[in-house]
Design goal:
By secondary structure, the protein is of the alpha/beta class. About 50% of the residues lie in helices and about 15% in strands.
Length: about 375
Amino acid sequence: MISLLMPVCNSLSGQNHDFGFLDQAIASLQSQTFTEFELLILDNQSNDCTFEYCEKIARKDSRVKVFKDEARRSPEEAIRKLSELSKYDYCAIVNDDDTWDDRYFEILISVLESNPSISLAYTNGRYLSPSGKRLGRIDAKRNLIYSSSSTCETNFHNYLKFRNPVPISFGLFRRKSFIESYPSKVFDSYGMNLDNIFIANFIRFGNSILHLDSDLFFYRNKKRALHFDRLVGAQTFTPCDILIRLVTHQLQVAAELISSGNCHKSIINMDWANEEIILSTLKPIKHLISWAMVIFPLSHQEFNQVKRFRKLIGEYTFNLSRYENRKNHRTTTNGIIHDYLNHLKKSSENAFRESEKLRIPLQSLLKAISALQNEPLISRTNRDLAF
């Protein structure tokens, strides 16, 4: 009755091998008190013996089915492919390094079976150290919990603000709602943030969510690849080049959210939702700037460019506190989207246009801004006023 979706790639190498993550994950699933499941494993062209190891397990347990991918994919893309291979009414994403309480799926399927209006049930959990020690709780803050006890607008606003797909994306979904919400393709060459688009879509489309505040899911807290590692040829990019490309990616995330929301019937007001999406890019852009200044050994010129960009972004004068705290979620502030995008455009040009090496990524960023400005972001009356 449940399809478990597990993408793997070199899961028997390095740190994964040293601590036996894959062994622990599969053993944890096999020991579930709810036994009616299929474990679908998609191997993303591993160059160690992960595929053969999983095949060996499948020969001993008929519930395990292993596939070798014909193309290189990100884990997020692999999850989409696995969902299309699944056949049961319920599905869940299972990482190759996490573990679960023995009653995890028994409890969640009981919730969904007894509540036909609920499309996702998930629990709280704890982080796991590489050695398996249980650490702090995952959902430690109330505004990181998404449930039917909050309005759809509140859940959507909070998710865009914090963008934390753990643990909500690892709950048990009704397969139909899962496939409707999960992106059907990558929207740029980096293949990142599909999980955030997935959950934002899932909430925006009006799916009901039930959260259980019990520590039944254990998420491995280990060193993971930084997002910029997925950039094609990232090792040849300068720090400012990487920063601009990742800022561009954030805007493309917004465009994808807007496009998917506009094409799907949503219970949330479209004007308000699109404004939330655009303005939610400000926080990750600020984080990217700080990240670039900390992680990279910037040259004097690069440091001044990033510092200037940070200063200009910080000068944006719209009343963010009013935006975040206003109680009427169904109103749109005329011109706020237009003003923000114009400010981002001018800040980018002012900070980086003098460097010939940054001409190509800067053009891509300006193109992404223009594309958003030309989108039907708000209703016609407000759009005429704003532009």
